[in-house]
Write a structure and sequence with these properties.
19% helix, two-stranded antiparallel sheet, globular, 2 helices, alpha+beta
Length: 72
């Protein structure tokens, strides 16, 4: 996926939500699905940006994410 999208950073896949979803509270137990969310961590593992959407269509704007990547 990284090669396809030409991203300058790694992506984490966590289909069961055990690492990236449930510990941050981004799990909707009633729907058994993750809430739309984005967590950016630096190379040391320090979380620099968190976004939690209200519903499946609520996503951060690209400019907001790229700003967090640049200045996180």
């Amino acid at each position: 996926m990284i090669d396809k999208l030409l991203l300058p950073f790694d992506l984490l896949s966590d289909p069961e939500g055990e690492v990236a979803i449930k510990p941050f509270g981004f799990w909707d137990e009633s729907g058994r699905i993750s809430k739309p969310s984005l967590v950016l961590a630096d190379p040391d593992g320090i979380v620099r940006y968190i976004y939690e959407g209200r519903d499946f269509a609520d996503r951060p704007k690209d400019a907001e994410v790229m700003e967090a990547v640049r200045h996180g």
